[in-house]
Design brief:
By secondary structure, the chain is α/β, with parallel strands linked by helices. The protein contains nine helices and eight strands. About 35% of the residues lie in helices and about 15% in strands.
């Protein structure tokens, strides 16, 4: 009975995360439960396919005046079904090129959902998108979102919004960055000028 009870609790845990036992086998199940939960919740959607093979994803990138080759350069994926239906899946790596989480961006405007959705365990306050590709750069442009990076990939990292954490600043210093140009969207100044002031003081 105890064995059955343990199995039942494990299955409830997997069901709550929407994870199959097949998926679970690809993870180190000896890791502490909170860490395992975070890893499972941040996994790439099983429905995701290579975005460059999907006509609507290619059309969307072109509509943003970005080269289609960027889909493969940044490893973008696409979901035609599931929770992230009609969304580009943008993998996020840390400074050591290890996968950490992802960001999803809808390609269907006015679908009633936020433009960006994140997995439940996603924590971007200790990550800077594209920093792994710019290690060694002494000057960095700090932009707001991942698509800002795609437009200025050789120079920029994004803070995932109009904020920057101390951990993100520490990452810039750790990578040898000496000068940062703050290039958040114009509404950050027009609507919330105090965010600019706070960010500038931190930097």
């Amino acid at each position: 009975w105890e064995t059955r009870s343990v199995f039942s609790r494990e299955q409830e845990f997997l069901d709550a995360l929407g994870v199959s036992r097949t998926t679970l086998k690809s993870f180190d199940t000896d890791m502490p439960l909170p860490k395992l939960r975070k890893a499972l919740e941040s996994r790439l959607p099983e429905e995701a396919v290579q975005a460059s093979t999907v006509p609507e994803a290619r059309a969307y990138i072109e509509s943003r005046r970005l080269p289609v080759v960027y889909l493969d350069h940044f490893g973008l994926l696409y979901c035609r079904e599931g929770f992230y239906r009609n969304r580009l899946i943008i993998p996020v790596f840390d400074v050591n090129n290890e996968y950490r989480t992802f960001v999803s961006r809808t390609i269907v405007e006015n679908d009633g959902l936020p433009k960006y959705l994140y997995p439940r365990a996603c924590s971007t306050s200790s990550l800077l998108y594209n920093l792994n590709m710019l290690r060694g750069n002494r000057t960095i442009w700090l932009v707001e979102g991942v698509f800002d990076v795609l437009a200025t990939k050789d120079y920029s990292v994004c803070s995932f919004g109009k904020h920057i954490s101390q951990r993100q600043i520490d990452l810039l210093r750790l990578c040898g960055v000496q000068k940062v140009a703050l290039l958040w969207d114009h509404d950050a100044w027009a609507v919330t000028g105090d965010l600019w002031e706070k960010a500038l003081k931190k930097l």
